[in-house]
């Protein structure tokens, strides 16, 4: 299957099953902005909750923060984004389309999609111009330069400007970190590949403040920890690798940067970045705000500007990785089936409960079981429509790991059958053990 076929199938499944819809679809869609449907939002919430649990709740050296999207415009001057958060853009006079000059080889010509921009004799690429990726708007009723503010292009700056607030309020000592999950916006020139690169997206970022000189060691520890997290979501190990940035690739703030990459249908691409940002951001905020941001160690009285090791993952990109990694087509009992083999921890619905037939009190028992699971905070779904085979197929596509069938024997002895989505094995257990059985497998 070609990479575009795979992506087409994924986009179509995502829409059919209520994972992801195009934003403002009835108006023809908004360029590279997507909405999450009933199952998509559950998957996304699971990703965010698992990240938060591991990065904040399970540690005593990372604190949470939810900084505002709109920040003082000087923040973005200090951070270097006003000056340097740009992509080189070229316009083709022949097709009037604009392209990122540094990735022409990955793009399609506006007139002849089989060639890249500039490849055809009729292409007329102009001189490159730097295009700032930040979305601009105005604060208050006056629309002039003095009232210009930006939609944040990363959550990280909210953590830097709050570094001392969090440190003193939480009585933390360096080394410690600040974690945030939130929306970020970039006016990308070449967005695409479904939810891989979008103009509005969510980041889960953690800034870890350390004493200079200990930064290399912390960098290695965080890189290992982040790789372990991706594996804990059930992502295939052979589709993950690390790529260290060479000197020409490093962002303006970084001393060292390593991408955790995933093998998407369209090639190896960044999923998460781990960066050694040195004291660049804190130093610049000291300069631009005139406020000291030094850490004073209450024990030894040491004073220093901490270095920062950052871990930055896209939530939407993680969702795309999970969907891509889980998607498979296979033949079962002579029939084609599409399966989303999502890890039970991230699957939106954990169990679907079916009455085998719509009579003899079976629907009532099944509906009660589904309600009891939901009340026990296990997302469950009741379905009585269509043949049992069709109900299985719908849940296979939705990524539900277990289907529970209530049949004649349930009415007699209180047992139900659980069918495993991947192995197709069926086990019979007492319905009163169902919650415990599922919980054990989610742990
Ligand atoms: N604070 C550092 C930072 O923002 P980044 O590598 O530019 O670093 C971090 O972004 C992560 O955010 C990326 O690895 C990616 O997962 C996600 N991301 C960045 N731009 C994105 C976009 N346009 N659409 C979706 N996700 C994006």
Provide a short characterization of the protein structure.
By secondary structure, the chain is an alpha+beta fold. It is 31% helix and 28% strand. The strands form seven sheets. A seven-stranded mixed β-sheet has the order 3-9-10-16-13-12-11, with helices on both faces. It has a five-stranded mixed β-sheet with strand order 20-19-21-22-23, sandwiched between helices. The chain has a three-stranded antiparallel β-sheet with strand order 5-4-6.
Explain what you see.
The protein is an alpha+beta fold and 443 residues long. It has 3 domains: 3-76 and 138-323, BirA Bifunctional Protein, domain 2, CATH 3.30.930.10; 86-132; 349-442, Rossmann fold, CATH 3.40.50. 31% of the residues lie in helices and 28% in strands. It is built from 13 helices and 23 strands. The strands form 7 sheets. It has a 7-stranded mixed β-sheet with strand order 3-9-10-16-13-12-11, sandwiched between helices. Strands 20-19-21-22-23 form a 5-stranded mixed β-sheet, with helices on both faces. Strands 5-4-6 form a 3-stranded antiparallel β-sheet. Strand 4 and strand 5 (98-100) form a beta hairpin. It starts with a helix and ends with a helix. 33% of the residues are buried. Residues 154, 156, 186, 188, 197-198, 201, 203, 205, 270-273, 310, 312-314, 316-317 line the site of glycyl-adenosine-5'-phosphate (GAP).
């Amino acid at each position: 299957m070609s990479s575009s076929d795979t992506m087409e199938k994924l986009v179509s499944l995502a829409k059919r099953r209520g994972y992801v819809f195009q934003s403002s679809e009835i108006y023809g869609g908004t360029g590279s902005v997507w909405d999450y449907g009933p199952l998509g939002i559950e998957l996304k919430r699971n990703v965010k909750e698992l990240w938060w649990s591991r990065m904040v709740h399970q540690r005593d050296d990372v604190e949470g923060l939810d900084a505002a999207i709109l920040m003082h415009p000087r923040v973005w001057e200090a951070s270097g984004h006003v000056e340097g958060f740009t992509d080189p853009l070229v316009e083709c006079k022949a097709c009037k389309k604009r392209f990122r000059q540094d990735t022409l080889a990955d793009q399609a010509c506006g007139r002849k999609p089989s060639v890249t921009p500039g490849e055809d004799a009729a292409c007329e690429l102009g001189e490159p111009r730097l295009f700032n990726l930040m979305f601009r708007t105005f604060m208050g009723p006056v629309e002039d330069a003095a009232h210009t503010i930006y939609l944040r292009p990363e959550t990280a700056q909210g953590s830097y400007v709050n570094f001392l607030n969090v440190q003193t309020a939480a009585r933390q000592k360096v080394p410690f970190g600040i974690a945030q999950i939130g929306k970020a916006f970039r006016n990308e020139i070449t967005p695409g590949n479904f939810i891989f690169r979008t103009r509005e997206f969510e980041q889960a970022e953690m800034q870890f403040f350390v004493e200079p000189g200990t930064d290399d060691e912390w960098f290695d520890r965080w890189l290992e920890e982040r790789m372990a997290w991706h594996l804990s979501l059930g992502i295939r190990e052979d589709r993950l690798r690390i790529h260290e940035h060479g000197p020409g690739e490093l962002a303006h703030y970084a001393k060292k940067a390593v991408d955790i990459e995933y093998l998407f249908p369209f090639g190896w691409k960044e999923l998460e970045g781990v960066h050694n940002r040195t004291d660049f951001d804190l130093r610049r905020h000291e300069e631009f705000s005139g406020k000291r941001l030094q850490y004073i160690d209450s024990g030894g009285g040491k004073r220093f500007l901490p270095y920062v090791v950052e871990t930055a993952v896209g939530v939407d990109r993680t969702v795309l990785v999970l969907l891509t990694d889980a998607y498979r087509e296979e033949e079962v009992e002579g029939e084609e089936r599409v399966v989303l083999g999502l890890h039970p921890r991230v699957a939106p619905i954990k169990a679907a409960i079916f009455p085998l037939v719509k009579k003899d009190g079976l629907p009532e028992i099944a509906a009660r079981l589904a309600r009891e699971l939901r009340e026990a905070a296990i997302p469950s779904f009741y379905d009585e429509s269509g043949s049992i085979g069709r109900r299985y197929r719908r849940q296979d596509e939705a990524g539900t790991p277990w289907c529970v069938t209530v049949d004649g024997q349930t009415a007699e002895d209180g047992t139900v059958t659980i069918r495993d989505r991947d192995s197709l094995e069926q086990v019979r257990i007492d319905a009163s053990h169902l919650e415990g059985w599922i919980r054990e497998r989610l742990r």
